[in-house]
Design a protein that fits this description.
Elements lengths: L16 H29 L3 H13 L3 H12 L4 H6 L3 H23 L3 E3 L3 H7 L6 E3 L5 H9 L7 H27 L19
Antiparallel strand pairs: 1-2
Helix pairs in contact: 1-2, 1-3, 1-8, 3-5, 5-7, 5-8
Amino acid sequence: MTERRQRSLAITGVKFEPYALAIGQMALAWNELHEALGILFTKTLASGIESSLLGIAIWGAVTNDRQKRLILGAAINHIGEEAHLQFPQLASDVLWIIDRTHSLEDKRNNVVHSPLAEVTSELIAVMAGLQMGDVFPGGVLNERALKLSKSTIHVGKNLLTEMNIYRDYAEMLASFSDDIFTAWLTPAGTWPEKPVLPPLKDKA
């Protein structure tokens, strides 16, 4: 029987735990963001209970997150002149959230789909500018891991810190989406301000 290949980082190991936590939190923040966007989508169609149910059905039938955002963008531009007059920032702010989520998507995918490894070779440590024992995107056959590596260790960024930035970015967009929904329900209230997001300058 062929012996199973020895992996450089056991996924249940103590060293892996903070990365597993960061990946899990980021995935949950991403899911919460799309839940908040889905609520905005149902609101664009909601002139009554039947319209709300229709929005829920349509949103749930689309299985691709980017496609969900695209139908929200299409819907928000066609909700009627009254809504645009009453809430002049509504369409532009929702489209801003969609655009920022597009920017985050590739980085989020890089994190979720990258295997991780521990530096056990002095040569790799020197070439990557890492220390022995550091955790890094270690899939040499994985395009996502290579992209994540280029956007973190190749520019002197801490991998775990970068993961948490992506999580916070998604959480801030989700909160802003919730605030827009609340303001949309209360026309006499104050319209929320855009959050100041962490920069996502590097193309990964």
